[in-house]
Design goal:
Elements: H1 4-32, E1 37-45, H2 47-50, H3 72-81, E2 84-88, E3 92-93, E4 105-108, H4 114-125, E5 134-138, H5 141-145, H6 150-167, E6 172-176, H7 185-204, E7 209-212, H8 214-218, H9 242-259
Parallel strand pairs: 1-2, 1-4, 1-5, 5-6, 6-7
Antiparallel strand pairs: 3-4
Helix pairs in contact: 3-9, 4-6, 6-7
Length: 261
């Protein structure tokens, strides 16, 4: 008799194989029919954009596995289902082996702040001969975690957006509020409250930018480890689990779907 756990693993592998074949066939069909829109996506962020915690059980100790897809993989899938031919860019390449390699590039650097991603931007843009048409940003967790003032955090965010506007004015940028950060709630909540007005200022300057209410829509990592739905996060309530990352992907996907690329 084959052990139940083995059967489950075989079934899961079969599920992933069928799912990915369906995605690839759909993408190819869109290309052949001429209906697929090529979208080059640059994901900017920290360990949450890497996907640290994807492989962790609810409230478990966080790890940053090489096969972690975080919100990036389900968001790429959602965009492909909407008729986009998705490819990514960036200096890092991580993600599960069963997804297209074109979905696995990014700038999700564990421990990094707004200013560090800002300093890397020109290098990031050189990872493709074509400028990105889509940029997503989820940053600020490490700025808050390392104790910067609210004024410095806001200035760092504005600096990054200034450089994006100057370097790739045709790209559409979706900047998200920070997911819940109970240990630094005051810092995160203050920044999140200011972010819509920052976005409005850049819109007035002609930037193609959209505020994505990530914390508001996803409800990820809010409250303490005993709160309802706390299992959407790892221990410490900083990094989502796979279930939490699905919520993040949904928030970005909805924001993009309603605003267009």
């Amino acid at each position: 008799m084959i052990p139940t756990v083995v059967l489950r693993k075989v079934n899961m592998i079969g599920f992933h194989t069928i799912a990915m074949r369906s995605i690839i066939l759909l993408t190819l069909a869109n290309i052949l029919l001429g209906s697929a829109e090529n979208v080059l996506w640059l994901p900017l962020g920290d360990s949450i954009t890497w996907g640290c915690g994807t492989d962790v059980t609810p409230r478990g100790s966080v790890t940053c596995a090489k096969d972690a897809g975080g919100y990036r993989v389900p968001l790429a899938w959602a965009l492909s289902q909407a008729g986009h031919n998705i490819s990514t860019m960036g200096t890092l390449t991580t993600g599960p082996p069963y997804v297209p390699e074109e979905w696995t590039r990014h700038e999700g650097h564990p421990g990094w702040r707004f200013d560090q991603i800002d300093q890397l931007l020109n290098t990031s843009l050189k990872t493709s001969t074509t400028p990105p048409s889509l940029i997503t940003i989820h940053l600020g967790t490490n700025d808050c975690g390392q104790g910067v003032t609210e004024e410095i955090l806001e200035a760092r965010a504005i600096s990054l957006l200034n450089h994006i506007l100057a370097a790739v004015p045709t790209a559409k940028t979706f900047i998200a509020s920070m997911i819940g950060f109970p240990a630094k709630a005051a810092c995160a909540d203050t920044f999140n409250a200011k972010l819509p007005s920052i976005v409005d200022t850049f819109k007035q300057r002609g930037m193609k930018i959209v505020y994505t209410p990530m914390q508001e829509w996803s409800g990820v990592c809010v409250g303490n480890a005993t709160a309802a739905l706390s299992g959407l996060c790892c221990s410490g309530q900083v990094h989502p689990t796979a279930a939490g990352y699905l919520r993040m992907a949904s928030a970005f996907a909805l924001s993009i779907a309603e605003s267009g690329i």
